[in-house]
Write a structure and sequence with these properties.
This protein has five domains: 51-141; 146-257, Nucleic acid-binding proteins (OB fold (Dihydrolipoamide Acetyltransferase, E2P), Beta Barrel); 262-535, no CATH class; 539-579, no CATH class; 592-834, 4-Layer Sandwich (Metallo-beta-lactamase, Chain A), CATH 3.60.15. The N and C termini lie far apart (92 Å). The chain is globular. An eight-stranded mixed beta sheet has the order 18-17-16-15-14-13-26-27. Strands 19-20-21-22-23-24-25 form a seven-stranded mixed beta sheet. A hairpin with a 2-residue loop joins strand 7 (185-197) and strand 8 (200-213). The chain is α+β, with helices and mostly antiparallel strands. The chain crosses the membrane at residues 46-64, 70-95, 116-136, 313-334, 386-403, 409-429, 441-460, 466-497, 504-524, 536-558, 567-587. Residues 601-773 form the Metallo-beta-lactamase domain. This is ComEC/Rec2 family competence protein. Keywords: Cell membrane, Membrane, Transmembrane, Transmembrane helix. InterPro entries: ComA-like_MBL (IPR035681), ComEC_N (IPR004477), Competence_DNA_uptake (IPR052159), Metallo-B-lactamas (IPR001279), RibonucZ/Hydroxyglut_hydro (IPR036866).
């Protein structure tokens, strides 16, 4: 036998398999020798070449590209592009030797340097693209007089297109004649095309946010063309609108959205008709999961889904899109459609879904992330997931740079990243530990766990707590989501031609939808459903680091636990003891001087006057929470009631306060809303309690409590008249100075600063600030700068519709070093004078 024989031993075959896995060799010829280098094939390595540059460019776009002057952003884009070009040229230059091009081990530092240059080129190119897009779009939006008119608070006539469905923000009683439900207040985003102001008509392309009251504003549809008269106000730096507006005249709908979107509205209406006879929870959830229509979801179910981390199901999200596309592809396979025709069919289905759900930014974002999620679930394309996600982020940020400041976009992106990176390995690990018939559930269980783990650090700044039931709720609800969505889509399609038949089919979606509702309600009722964590940036970073640490050490910990279970049990017991929540055993705590009662979305404060006597400042929106707070305190008599203004969330619970002996009521002289002012007057007359006004310049002394009133000095017509008529005063209780700011807005705060200058000789040292208007963004930060102490109280309701406290206000307080306490997170909050120290503790 001539020639070499092929290896036949087991070792030889293993070497062949290893060589096959590694892929082809690279042969490099030089003058004298042949150097053979094997290029290993990284099967499991994550492809981060595009994702890392995108992640680095994202915060630069959010905090520089959308805030810095446009000319500076454009300059930055040019500089980044130049650096990208230089790095690309330098990284592409080969290393030559007299004998040829060598790529051996002795030149690895040169190869590493080239890789670094190429990575720098990619990062700078991505940054240049994003900054250029931001500069261009900001220049287009700011062209015209709208921003200037907003700064001047001018009145203007706008011709605009509705850019997003109206979002209701209020269902309160403010301004109603009978003290009951007032006209709804809605937030509507408009894309302004023409503005008429101060005798000049200008064509523009600028977004404006309108806060409109009345059924007309609530009934608007996406892409309606409208005309209205508004008073403009300034937007905050970095906002995705150039001005904020309040209507000053009638709203006129000039044109509808067009035949395509009229047809989409008809389909939505037919879907609602088909689900009309379902159980209430299912009647709300089926349209919500299919097209994001939450108009009929019961309010208590909405709250339960928020508390348990299931609210993403009832909004148009990437998961909805993934289920819809997966169902379409499955149907294509079922009918035998060729593979090459399936992507165009899926694309048409996606386009129809986007039109049906409204092509607003959140829906478009969900569609793109759904495509990436479907890619992640594909066994043949999974390695392309991370580059696809990075590309999707770039495309979306180029289309709308303001998405970089959106929590929704961040959550959607991070959830998709968790699906790409963690869901697969975790699904396989879970499946290995399940009995044979249940192993297909491994990926189903891994998806919600992965999403919750990676999203928790982003959610913390929004709610200040870590949900302990969200993972459980998502695990329990996961089996019901797909059938509800898929059958719901079928109901929507059938309802176009046969509403009655669609109504029968809808019961197939109603049963799993009821399962989702049952999970949400049951999990919301579990004790210890959340862990208070804090809502600061530091708290979010700490949770992120802790999450990464747990993920990295979990395999080692699991291995050690199996070999040393006693040590593991001891660690769990110790951690439970250290992490167990502690609370004040007695309430109110010793040394308390002021308590911000947990009255929901409103104000109700109680100051200690000794011996069971108290002074009450505002009474909350309803009697029962205020009654319960006074009972907990053990108040026996009220020496004075101060009503800062007549909005219902400050005077609605007055009847509960008057159940105890009350010596006197003092209130704002601005009798607006008139209905609430009249109701307070009737209660005072019925209880034979003196009712008088409080004005700037007055001083009060009641027992051991004294107060100086700094506002109102006069009525302000700008902004909210009742809010700007709030009583502002400093109260001294056993040596602690408290600034009570009512609900004043920017206009009144400016007047207080102008007329008093917060003169320390007159005001004294301010130890505690009761933040104005539940932490609204309509504020004057100069007021914060004049407060000596760094303790702030925010009286605010959990999950309120106003977005209070505003993230911008929380940031302003944190930037100034305030220790912030909130009633929505801590319940009743007591200010304690402990020796020379002033601190706060939550019940």
């Amino acid at each position: 036998m001539t020639g070499e024989s092929r290896p036949t031993s087991r070792t030889g075959r293993a070497a062949e398999r290893e060589q096959a896995l590694r892929g082809p060799s690279l042969v490099v010829l030089t003058g004298r020798e042949t150097i053979r280098r094997v290029r290993p094939r990284s099967v499991r390595r994550l492809d981060l070449r595009l994702l890392v540059p995108v992640v680095l460019a994202w915060p630069v776009l959010a905090f520089v590209g959308l805030v810095a002057p446009v000319w500076l952003v454009a300059t930055g884009a040019v500089v980044a592009l130049a650096v990208a070009a230089l790095a690309a040229v330098a990284g592409a230059a080969p290393l030559s030797t007299p004998g040829g091009v060598v790529a051996g081990s002795s030149h690895r530092p040169r190869a590493t340097g080239a890789s670094g240059l190429r990575a720098t080129a990619v990062a700078c190119a991505v940054l240049a693209l994003l900054l250029a897009s931001a500069a261009g779009q900001r220049a287009v939006r700011s062209a015209g007089p709208l921003a200037e008119l907003g700064g001047q608070r001018a009145v203007a006539t706008l011709r605009a297109v509705v850019a997003a469905e109206p979002r209701p923000v209020q269902g309160g009683r403010h301004g109603s004649e009978d003290g009951k439900a007032a006209a709804p207040v809605s937030v509507v985003r408009l894309d302004v095309t023409w503005v008429v102001a101060r005798g000049r008509t200008t064509a523009v392309s600028s977004p404006v946010l309108v806060i409109g009251q009345g059924a007309q504003w609530a009934a608007l549809h996406w892409h309606d063309e409208v005309e209205t008269v508004v008073r403009l106000g300034p937007a905050e730096a970095g906002d995705d609108v150039v001005a904020v507006a309040t209507p000053k005249g009638d709203l006129r709908v000039v044109a509808g959205p067009g035949p395509v979107f009229d047809a989409a509205d008809s389909v939505r209406a037919r879907l609602r008709a088909a689900t009309e006879s379902l159980w209430p929870d299912a009647r709300g959830l089926v349209p919500a999961l299919v097209v994001g229509d939450t108009s009929r979801t019961p309010s208590d179910l909405t709250l339960a889904m928020l508390q348990t981390g299931l609210s993403h199901l009832s909004a148009v999200s990437g998961s909805n899109v993934t289920f819809v596309l997966a169902a379409v592809l499955w149907l294509c396979g079922l009918v035998g459609l060729r593979r090459r025709w399936r992507p165009p069919v899926a694309a048409l289905a996606l386009l129809g879904f986007v039109v049906l759900a409204r092509p607003e930014p959140s829906v478009v974002r969900a569609a793109v992330m759904g495509l990436v999620g479907l890619l992640a679930l594909s066994t043949s394309r999974r390695r392309a997931g991370l580059p696809a996600l990075a590309g999707a982020i770039v495309v979306l940020l180029l289309w709308d740079p303001w998405l970089s400041r959106s929590y929704g976009f961040a959550l959607s992106t991070i959830a998709t990243l968790g699906l790409l990176v963690l869901a697969g390995p975790w699904g396989r690990a879970i499946a290995r530990r399940l009995p044979g018939p249940l192993r297909p559930l491994g990926p189903v269980l891994a998806i919600p766990v992965a999403a919750q783990v990676v999203c928790a650090p982003v959610v913390v700044p929004l709610q200040g707590s870590v949900s302990l039931v969200a993972v459980l709720a998502n695990l329990l609800a996961a089996p019901f989501v797909a059938p509800t969505t898929v059958v719901g889509v079928a109901v929507g399609l059938l309802s176009v031609v046969w509403v009655t038949g669609a109504g029968w089919l809808a019961w197939g979606a109603a049963v799993p939808a009821q399962g989702i509702a049952a999970v949400a309600r049951w999990c919301a009722g579990l004790p210890f459903g959340s862990l208070d964590w804090g809502d600061s940036a530091a708290a979010a970073v700490l949770l992120a680091l802790l999450t990464v640490g747990v993920l990295l050490t979990a395999p080692w910990a699991w291995h050690r636990t199996r070999h040393r279970p006693t040590v593991a049990v001891a660690v769990v017991v110790l951690a439970s003891g250290l992490g167990a929540p502690t609370a004040v055993l007695a309430w109110p705590p010793p040394g308390w001087v002021l308590i911000a009662c947990d009255v929901g979305q409103g104000d109700g404060l109680v100051a200690d006057n000794g011996g069971g006597h108290v002074v009450v400042v505002d009474a909350g929106p309803e009697p029962e929470p205020m009654r319960a707070c006074l009972d907990r305190i053990g108040a026996t008599a009220v020496d004075l009631v101060v009503l800062t203004h007549y909005h219902a969330d400050h005077v609605g619970g007055l009847a509960a306060v008057l159940e105890r002996p009350v010596a006197e009521i003092r209130a704002s002289p601005v009798l607006d809303p008139p209905a609430e002012a009249a109701r307070v007057s009737r209660l005072a007359v019925a209880g034979r309690i003196p009712l008088a006004e409080l004005r700037a310049g007055e001083s009060l002394t009641v027992g051991g409590i004294s107060a100086d009133v700094w506002w109102p000095a006069r009525r302000i017509e700008a902004g909210s008249v009742p809010n700007n008529g709030s009583v502002v005063m400093t109260m001294r209780v056993r040596g602690v100075n408290i600034l009570l700011a009512g609900d004043i807005e920017r206009e009144a705060a400016g007047q207080v600063l102008h007329e008093t200058q917060l003169d320390p000789q007159r005001w004294g040292r301010i130890d505690v600030l009761k933040v104005a208007h539940h932490g609204s963004s309509n504020r004057d930060d100069r007021l914060l700068d004049r407060v000596d102490g760094r303790l702030a109280l925010i009286s605010v309701g959990a999950d309120n519709d106003y977005g209070h406290p505003a993230p911008a206000t929380m940031k302003a307080l944190q930037d100034r070093g305030f220790e912030v306490h909130r009633t929505d997170l801590e319940g009743d909050v007591a200010v304690i004078a402990d020796g020379g120290e002033v601190r706060a503790v939550g019940r």
